[in-house]
Amino acid sequence: ITMDNGLLPKSFLFFTLFLFIATTGVAGAKDPGHRLPRPRPLRKEKVTRLRFYWHDVVSGKNPTSITIVQGPSLNYSTGFGSVQMIDNPLTEGPELTSKQVGRCQGIYASASQQDLGLLMSMNLVFTEGRYNGSTLSIIGRNSVFHKLREMPVVGGSGAFRMARGYALLRTHWLDMNTGDASVQYDVVVVHH
Fold it and tell me: Would you say which domain of life the source belongs to (predicted)?
């Protein structure tokens, strides 16, 4: 089917495109390898409040925070450009010897030239209790020397599927010589 100028009519092209899309969708629906999982009905939203302590161990034989990119030496007192990879313990109490409830895995980078402002991207992986196997994801700015900081909770898995909320951070202690720190996290999450 062609017109005098050798081109196909637009209606034929649209019809062909429609048939292709329609039959591809039907074939995909019948092919078990291409089936999308059925979403479970969402349960009523809950609010969960958590408190734990995050331990950043930079010093010693077994650091939980290592430098993967050293920032340039351009007289930045903030360490601008430095990037750390972390696998930090989360504990019930402020001491590193307290009962461990999970791990914080991710990265943080010095992202400010004027003050110590970190860009943090972390997964809180719970390994004990009723949230064992569940995670929370946090990404945001941490102004380390402010008494109280707030960071957004942007997601989660397991018990925290579709989580959203915030974490309030307070430094419990910081060793300025080693860089080791313990930070209290008070987390409020809304989830299903």
Answer: Eukaryota
Cβ contact 87:64 at 8 Å:
yes
Mention the CATH class of domain 46-191: mainly beta
Tokens 């110590």, residue located: 116
Cβ pair 173, 151 in contact under 8 A? no
Give the pTM: 0.76
Q: What is the 3-state secondary structure (H, E, C) of 99-130?
A: CEEEEEEEEEEECCCCCCEEEEEEEEEECCHH
Element housing 27 (H / E): helix 10-30
Residues 70-102 as b or e (16 or more Cβ within 10 Å = b): eeeeeeeebbbbbbbebebbbbeeeeeebeebb
- Phi, psi (rounded to 5 degrees) for 58: -95, -30
User: Six-digit token pair at 52?
Assistant: 């734990």
CA 89 – CA 125 distance, rounded (Å): 10
CA-nearest of 104, 144, 133, 134 to 121 is 104
* Max Cα-Cα span within the chain: 85
In 3D, which of 110, 97, 96 has the Cα closest to residue 180? 96
In the chain, where the domains are located: 46-191
